[in-house]
Amino acid sequence: MKVTVCIGSSCHLKGSRQVVEEFQYLIAENDLKDKVELGGTFCMGNCQKGVCVTVDDKLYSVSPDTAKSFFEENVISKLK
Amino acid sequence: MRKFDTKVQHLKYKVLREVAREAWNGTLTEHVLDIPKTIVPGNVPTMRCCVYKERAILSERVKIAMGGDKSNPNVIEVIEIACDECPMGGYEVTEACRGCLAHRCEDVCRRGAITFDSHQKAHIDKSKCVECGQCAKVCPYSAIMNFKRPCVSSCKVKAISMTETKAACIDNEKCISCGACVYQCPFGAITDKSFILDAIELLKNRDNKVFAVVAPSISSQFTYAKLGQVISGIKALGFHTVVEAALGADMVAYAESGELAEKGFLTSSCCPAFVSYVKSYFPELADNVSQNLSPAATISKYIKEHEPEAKVIFIGPCTAKKMEFQKEEVRPYIDCVITFEELQALFDSRDLEITDMGEDVLDNASYFGRIFARCGGLSDAVAEGLKERGITDFELKPCSCDGIEECRIALLKKSKGVLDANFIEGMACVGGCIGGAGCLTHGEKNKAEVDKYGKEAYEKTITDAIKQLGKIK
Question: By CB count within 10 A, which of A13, B63, B300, B342 is most buried?
Answer without folding.
Answer: B300
